[in-house]
Amino acid sequence: MENSIITKADIPSVSGLFNKASLHDATFIIFGATGDLSMRKLFPALYNLRVDGLLPDDFKIVTVARSNKTLESLLERFKSGVQRFSRSGFKEEIWQQLAERTTYVQVNYGDPQSYATLKAELGMDKQDNAQRRYLFYLSTPPTSFNVIIEGLGKNGLVTPAHHNAGPPTRVVFEKPFGRDLSSALELNALAHQYLDEEQLFRMDHYLGKETVQNILIFRFANAIFEPIWNRRYIHHVRITAFENIGIEGRGAFYEEAGVIRDVLQNHLLQILALCAMEPPNSFEAEHIRDERAKVFKALRHLDASSVGSDVSLAQYAGYREEDGVDRDSRTPTYASVKLFIDNWRWAGVPFILSTGKNLKKKMTQIEIVYTPVPLCLFKENDVCMKLEPNVLTIRIQPEEGISLRIGTKTPGEKEDVSPVQMDFDFNQSFKEKAQQEAYEKLLLDCLRGNQTLFARQEEVEHMWHFVAPLLDGAQDGSIPMGTYEPGSAGPEVKP
Ligand code: BG6
Description:
By secondary structure, this protein is α/β, with parallel strands linked by helices. It has helices at residues 36-51, 71-85, 92-99, 112-122, 145-154, 181-194, 210-220, 251-276, 285-298, 304-310, 381-386, 426-429, 438-448, 457-476, and strands at residues 26-31, 59-65, 102-106, 133-138, 169-173, 200-202, 234-242, 311-316, 334-339, 351-356, 363-370, 391-397, 401-409, 417-425, 481-484. 6-O-phosphono-beta-D-glucopyranose binds at residues 243, 262, 364.
């Protein structure tokens, strides 16, 4: 800030998001370890954390599942996951460091004896482990969460932090947290019998993406956008998460989840909250979570008429023929909803959230579409007709970056205007700095006990409340189910 009229003291500083507390020895216990997530995301993330020297010196990984597997066969699978999906190149030596710290325990989720075996394997009663962090990661289908929490709680593998009994324990829930409002309430109540809220980490990996975290940095590290971040200047906002892949053999899972539970209820609503929230008092976890929750609280509930006009659900052609999918399935693979946030800042501004599988290209982005100019000053009518509004596009993935569409003079005699892009490209600007994968950041935050990027109980409940009419309407047929061609742009939705 040299030569500046502003001194550091003029800007009160906030902290929290990037808090680097030191790490204690830790054991990761992965339930549902035979599933895809361990192979595609968790092991590659642990591998990269090891490459970057970010894991505690003494860490262990205990993989848990119901089936009778050998550790060797599992390690083979995890190794291939690291080779295929890790962002940093494969090094046998680093892999060996993970492999030799990994064990497997077969657990029957409803059987107390299984938990006794697991507890012994974890060495939780040993004095040496009194300060060790035990991180239980539930990557099973959500239908198993209750029985596992009960098993962990009743058998003393987790205890409420305020009891100060036993080593520190935390539980991470892979999303979705429940399958509707009532099951989420039930799961919350059950989890609170055995754990304090500070020990519960409700995962939404979108919050761990660098570009999603950058929404707050962009809004609150730049003075020029905040004054025009409201209903007076913004005409509408589009949040889009399209994928070009289908359900990839996960038919049974997807039939249960559908696009509403899989992406809309969590990833898209969390992005919405970051775009729409008020500035927090600081970047401390609870301040950020408070502001996100206020957005969810202010969501206008969809009634029969808005569901009819503002919601579009569809399946890609061929979905019902996929393995594990019901031939009469009413599970949507595409959803789009126009919603409103009933607060002072956003009154009357439509937010259009759209997401789907098997579309033309993978693309997650936010478009802030500004109000048009109030008066056209150009003489030629065709120039006025051509004027396009300013659009600020925040590209979450791929081609991560931010661009602003502005109107500019087209060179030449004629008074003409063309839209052009001012562009910031993450990868160009930070060539040397590889982006940390979302799961790396979030696993580390669980170890550090930083809950900023995890949903708090009330957030989850508000989100379920909001999507309830969509889930009901999809099932009872009151919302028509359209179809779209795989590889297409999906149904069109107007603001
Ligand atoms: C997951 C969903 O949460 O997010 C998947 O279960 C989806 O169905 C995935 O493909 C998308 O994540 P990303 O990080 O690839 O955008």
